[in-house]
Amino acid sequence: MIEFCGVQKTYTTGNASITALQRIDLKVNEGEIFGVIGHSGAGKSTLIRLINLLERPTEGTVKVSGVDLMALSENDLRQFRQHVGMIFQHFNLLGSMTVAENIAYAMRIVGQKSAQAIDARVDELLELVGLSKHKHKYPRQLSGGEKQRVGIARALSNHPTVLLCDEATSALDPQTTHSILQLLRRINETLKLTIVLITHEMDVIRTVCDRVAVIDGGRIVEEGAVTQVFLHPQHPTTKRFVQEAEGAHDAVVWGDNAAPRGGLYRLTFQRETVHQPLLSRVARSFAVDFSIITGRFGAIKSEPCGQVVVRATGEADQVQGALSQLAQAGVCVEEVSDATVA
Ligand SMILES: Nc1ncnc2c1ncn2[C@@H]1O[C@H](COP(=O)(O)OP(=O)(O)OP(=O)(O)O)[C@@H](O)[C@H]1O
């Protein structure tokens, strides 16, 4: 659906130049919610703005539905942009226009619909985002979450196939963030819309995304399914994001000093293993004790999952037997040197 191939972006101002993106190869599949996470200055905004050619790559190609954007004429580019909606951190609504007028404006500039058809579409979109009763209000009369709903309605007005979200929830409180993310999920599912979002919050990625790319210093340092990246982060930047999301601290084995020595193991439970009493079952079958050192349980998108770090004590062959049985049951077992969650 969206394909970056060898993309580089260098900004030049006066004599200075800065390379914001380097050698980006990336594929976003049709119908998925793809997240890009990175710290400030990592290159997220540059990357997302390349998808509708608000920025042009210095090198490499960006294709959407097989079309090389750099090869489009001005006219074709205008047409193409109708298929790509965008929402912004600060909503970018026109303060002098009502909610209905803000949404209608996006359709008017494309100039394809009658006033009646535009009004009917505005009503449909307001219903979709849950704002029907705010149709004639001005942006200053709305909360942040309501403004973002207007932004979403406006972005969807011309039936895009891709929705770009530029830090769309960064200005919102956690509860409003959650409701906007749920709305994005519903839109993704019901309209089969491909969504690309950029954020600096791992919680946003965990709540809605199917896949994620972690960007650092203009490069993608890790990419994969959110469950994989979240539960088994590899790159130090990814580990930091996960630890921040979990409120975890440096390598500390809380209250474990008096415990008998034994290996530390990280056990990851997904799918059916989340609901089974596997730990107590193997402890009974083998002469092994497990002390839980740290743990985290929750959901990634809709999938429940859990991860604990345990200290296993017992005869070496018994410990190995217990761990093998856990692995056979579908638990991911990793030996670790400290108890940090990531
Ligand atoms: N128009 C521009 N001209 C010059 N440099 C730019 C321009 N836009 C971005 N940059 C630089 O490119 C780098 C990447 O910026 P970008 O805005 O893409 O990062 P970001 O990850 O979105 O950061 P933030 O989360 O703070 O918005 C930064 O060093 C930034 O200063």
UniProtKB/TrEMBL annotation:
Pfam family for this entry, one: ABC_tran
GO molecular function annotation: ATP binding
ABC transporter domain mapped to chain residues: 2-242
Keywords linked to the UniProt accession: Amino-acid transport, ATP-binding, Cell membrane, Membrane, Nucleotide-binding, Translocase, Transport
Coiled coil: none
Name used for this protein in its record: Methionine ABC transporter ATP-binding protein
Organism: Hydrogenophaga atypica
Lineage of the organism: Bacteria, Pseudomonadati, Pseudomonadota, Betaproteobacteria, Burkholderiales
